[in-house]
Amino acid sequence: MTDNLSANRANFVTHLECAMTGERYEAGRLHGLSRVGRPLLVRYDLAALGASIDRDAIAARAPDLWRWRELLPVVNTANIVSLGEIETPLIAIPRSGGKGVLVKDEGRLPTGSFKARGLVMAVSMAKELGVTRIAMPTNGNAGAALAAYASRCGIETIVLCPEETPEINVREIAAQGARVWRVNGQIDECGAIVGKGAAEGRWFDFSTLKEPYRIEGKKTMGLELALQFGWDLPDAIFYPTGGGTGLIGMWKAFDELEKLGWIGSKRPRMYAVQAEGCAPMVRAFEQGLEHAERWENAATVAAGIRVPKAVGDFLILRAVRQSGGRALAVSDAEILRAVDDTARQDGLLMCPEGGATLAALRKARAEGLVAEGERVVLFNCATGLKYPMPMAGEPLDRTKEIDLSRL
Amino acid sequence: MTDNLSANRANFVTHLECAMTGERYEAGRLHGLSRVGRPLLVRYDLAALGASIDRDAIAARAPDLWRWRELLPVVNTANIVSLGEIETPLIAIPRSGGKGVLVKDEGRLPTGSFKARGLVMAVSMAKELGVTRIAMPTNGNAGAALAAYASRCGIETIVLCPEETPEINVREIAAQGARVWRVNGQIDECGAIVGKGAAEGRWFDFSTLKEPYRIEGKKTMGLELALQFGWDLPDAIFYPTGGGTGLIGMWKAFDELEKLGWIGSKRPRMYAVQAEGCAPMVRAFEQGLEHAERWENAATVAAGIRVPKAVGDFLILRAVRQSGGRALAVSDAEILRAVDDTARQDGLLMCPEGGATLAALRKARAEGLVAEGERVVLFNCATGLKYPMPMAGEPLDRTKEIDLSRL
Hints:
2 copies of one chain form a homodimer.
Chain A (H helix, E strand, L loop, with lengths): L12 E6 L5 E2 L14 E5 L1 H7 L2 H6 L29 E3 L1 H4 L3 E5 L9 H14 L4 E5 L3 H12 L3 E7 L4 H9 L3 E5 L3 H13 L4 E2 L8 H5 L1 H9 L7 E5 L4 H15 L9 E7 L4 H7 L26 H11 L2 E5 L1 H15 L5 H15 L9 E5 L13 E3 L11
Parallel strand pairs in A: 5-13, 6-7, 6-9, 7-8, 10-11, 10-13, 11-12
Antiparallel strand pairs in A: 1-2, 1-3, 4-5
Helix pairs in contact in A: 4-5, 5-6, 9-10, 13-14
């Protein structure tokens, strides 16, 4: 099989454009947000791309993220900073989720979360564009992925976490060579500090969607699903939504694949899943708004979706509405029950954000939004091992007579 | 690509045999150790296998453990209990390990460790052979893999851990539906309790090498390496050695591949890596013994290789000697330094047992055992996320003026 990390491939990026105004920005230069403060999207010459390679050639390559190289922005192969971005498996959960439900287990990626997809791309592009110092606000997993990839290529990193960030994430970030700080605030408040330093030229700002390439990395979730489902997308996708990069990325991937003629016009219904304690997208969806107001006093066990304000709010809401999906909120109790059910009944330990997608599926079924027999994908965005589990393990004294019948 | 989880495949198992005496045992029946108390090895009709399929056909299948089905014991596809056993990636660590060194990152497997390979096979076979209740002694990761696969197919499990077992492992085992106990003793002392219950007919004994199929699962590490290296094996393999199932399994795999004509007679030098605080194989290797005496007062940060006595000792020593390798012991300080270096310099967070392999490589290089430019594989047997990391994250007060130059 072809080695995607050493093969040179053609690059089809034509330019970047503002997701709000369509204003055009030059490729091959460092960009943050657009002039109106909105995310930039990378555009490709899809006609030339389609003439150069077909979907079967992609499918015949080694099964990692870099098999999609022609649909990705990195120009020079030597700039790829890889830690083994495997294609993540789809795992049935028949007992806890029912028939037809597959979990895409993103916890298998480097640093144990789907953040690796976005960060491997953003860091590789930072390397390509000569960035030497990066700062980022994070609820944990994005910071861990940034630290790993940046350390690997000698880029210095400063990571700011809300003080509620799980202990293991903060330690992991530091272990992988970043400098990390705990801030008495939410992720957008950490982001304000990062933004201030970036404006002063101290570092490059790697906040969600504030640089254009994380979305290109996250896009590969949609590309992989298309291939894994034999170029016939599933009926519904449940996606834990904080900053929403993955949902936006998948929607962009489907659009590009259709333009290439590799899939048809059929789209999955996209369900943006949030926690009841931080559900700005759900509120905006239900009120018919294009933008979401900040959610005050955000609180949920699912730290990864504790994002009070998302800069890509309009892109999330647009994709959900176009797809015929919904934004759904679930309680922490429902999240924890879902995690527990899937671990005990199907042997798959999900993260709380992954549990939220199963909880939302259960709600969607109860409301008649998802029919029996539909092909459903839930995103488990990180390994469950990063999250607290209940105490266990009663002591057993081997020096005394043990009643084996009670074991 | 072919779906390895639904396709029916031919089975080539002829029988099992005692690894010590060669005595023959019937396939398709439940077996523990041989009559002389030693492991049983599964034997295949390799001539018929080779006539039925070639290595290119295997390579063209989806890249998971089940692509090797003809070389595995499960007869009925419906008995496969899968959680997505992907092919694990090989990751370069140029800064901490040097050129030509690749880490096989087994932390990407279900439940975050290479134990999944052995347990997916053993549990699938237990299902095939009608087992309903399993008990196991474990230092953590094997118990977690057993719990996950057994819960997934409704088999009841009892897991006994030494009281020093990392907290996260004990909790993970319970979260995945097993009943788990903490025993005031070492793993072989837990094993004695499991053995007693098995003798009384209370459960089936899943101790390392005491049932014949874990080794067949672990064998896939060797099969994968052969394929990933283009059927030309690396020069040296460093393997963290507790019970040694993986080392024995890889050696068996290489033998089977050569008999099939899929690889030549060249073998990697096998380095069995242990901790200075528990190094029975190193002592036996250096003393030229065929069996290893129990290591008293075993103690090391690398819990997975804290195995004072291994039932497969003679198979480990035989493979290491035949390969021209060595058994090497490293200190806990060397282990922790290796973990830290690889995380900080190459962005890869290994487990202590994985760190031990890098520490041993450094020692082997210093002793002239490994030359510059040789192709070396280190086994990182589990995700580093399961292990304690140093405290990190200095507080930052966003309500006050922040001196950004100090970040």
